Amino acid sequence: DAGVIQSPRHEVTEMGQEVTLRCKPISGHNSLFWYRQTMMRGLELLIYFNNNVPIDDSGMPEDRFSAKMPNASFSTLKIQPSEPRDSAVYFCASSWLGNEKLFFGSGTQLSVL
Amino acid sequence: GIQVEQSPPDLILQEGANSTLRCNFSDSVNNLQWFHQNPWGQLINLFYIPSGTKQNGRLSATTVATERYSLLYISSSQTTDSGVYFCAVEPTDSWGKLQFGAGTQVVVTP
Description:
The structure holds two protein chains of two kinds.
Chain A: E1 5-7, E2 10-13, E3 19-24, E4 31-38, E5 42-50, E6 53-56, E7 65-71, E8 74-79, E9 88-95, E10 103-104, E11 108-112
Parallel strand pairs in A: 2-11
Antiparallel strand pairs in A: 1-3, 3-8, 4-5, 4-9, 5-6, 7-8, 9-10, 9-11
Chain B: E1 4-7, E2 10-14, E3 19-25, E4 29-37, E5 43-48, E6 52-56, E7 59-64, E8 69-74, E9 83-91, E10 99-100, E11 104-109
Parallel strand pairs in B: 2-11
Antiparallel strand pairs in B: 1-3, 3-8, 4-5, 4-9, 6-7, 7-8, 9-10, 9-11
């Protein structure tokens, strides 16, 4: 299996622009998670889906952030409008059932100028 | 919410040395996992270990859930073991929500 696939690997954008991050979970996994990693706050869970349904989005920092999972093999995390404080590494992860072994993608390094 | 404390925060090892990393958590958990973040930023799952002991090559882990701690052992360390080791726990009242510790930064010198 190719593992969790994220794109793009790096994204540089200007403040105010829309940013879309993409994720393909491991085939057969039914739980998908979006995390953000910063030096100040470490790894934070933003949102997670089970069977394509958002279960908990309490970690989404603001209304500027939204996430979708239209099918079992694809999810997006969108930031609109982006701000410099959104600069971070965004990870997608998946597991078989939400509380089983978690596998991470390679992350997207986002820089908002 | 649950508190996850990892110690030590930093560790410098000479190649070939053994070490123990600790993870303490403040409340009951459904599961506990250990991850290694390599210097390129990739997060690798080392162990899914809600209780008991597991071994994977030179690494092993033990979780004593009743006493709310877990240990990660690195034996005969190699430079490729460098990186940050994270412990993550799922509280019993938060299905699916892994809470990560701050990590232990490990540097293995040749």
